[in-house]
Specification:
- It contains ten helices and 17 strands.
- Strand 8 and strand 9 form a beta hairpin.
- The radius of gyration is 22 Å and the shape is globular.
Amino acid sequence: KLEGLRLRNVKKIDCYLNAAVNNIVTNDVLMSEIVKPFPLKMWLKKLLLEQKPGVTEADVTDDYDKLVNDVEAFLSSENGCREIHHEWCFDSRKREYVLKVENVSVLEEIQRLVNTKKDIKDATMLKELLMQNFTTFQGDVQHDAGDAYLSMLECAPDLAEKYNLLLKVTRKCLECQKENEKKEMSGLVDLKYLNYGTEVRTLQEAVTEYCRRRRDVMMMCPCKNTHFETVLGVRGDLVPVYNSKHEEIWEVVKCPLVLMVRVKGRYRPRNNVTFLDKFTIKDVAYVFKSCMLYTGTGERGHWRTEDALGCRRSRTWLDNPTDSYSSASSVPIQCI
C-alpha cells in the first residue's frame, strides 16, 4: 500500500501536482537521488569534460565547492568552448547552468515536504517554483500529472539514467537511402501516440510496439541541398522546408531502473490497453509500482494516486469504460 504525503488540493486543480509528488516520494530509487546533498555533482563533471578544452577525468576534482568554482570560472571566461564548438554552444551552456542551479530549489522543496509528512501540507510553493523554472506550467491550469512528474525529475540531472530510456533512432532517406543514427533519451513510453483503432492490446504488446516504432517523417536531406525551399517563419525569418521523406526506426539500447508509461491521452475516450502487473523490454523485467489516474473532461477533472490493487479496481483500466469522459494514465513502473 502506498503511503504518500497528505497534501491539500488548494485550488481544486492542484490534485495533478499532488499525484505527481506522491509517485516520486513513494519511490525509493528516485528519492535516493533527490535527497543527495550535491544533486548537480555528476552533471558539473560532465560539463567540464565535454565542454572545456583539454580537460581529462584526472583534472576534474571530487570536491564539490571547488568543482562549482571551476565550472563558474570556465563559463565566465572569454573564450570558453568557442574554439572547439560554436558560439551558440557556449551561450547555451551558460543558460543551462543557471537553469540547473535554479532547479535545485525544486528538489529542496520536495525534501521539505517529505520531512514534514506527518502534517497536512500543500504543494503551493512547489507549483510556484515549477512555474518559475518551466514556461509550460501555468498557475490556474490543471496540467497532466505525468508532465509534472517528469519536470520534477528533470531538476535532478544526475538521476537521468535511472528513469530515461536510451534509444537509437535511425532515419533513412527514402530517396537517396542515406542513413543517420542518433542516440536519444526518453523519459516515458508514451502509448497515446500509437494508432490501433478499436483493437485491444495488452500492456506488453503496446510497449513492445512503441519500442520498435517505425514511421515516416519529413526531414531535410543532402540529396536535395541544391533546391532547399524556404517559407516565412513565425518571427519573420526564412526557415527551411523539410522536403524529403525518411523512415524512422526506434531501437531500445538501455533500460532504466524506473520507467513511466503513459497509457492514454486526454482526448481518447476509449482505453485499448489492458492492465498487466509485469512486462519486459529487452529482457529487462518491470513490475507495477504505482499510477496516476485521471477522470474528467480534459480541461478539469481529478487526478489520484493508486497502487496496483487500486489500479485493477479502477474503471479507467477496463476495456470499455462506462463513463463518457476521456482519461489519462501515467504509470511509473519499478524495475525488478
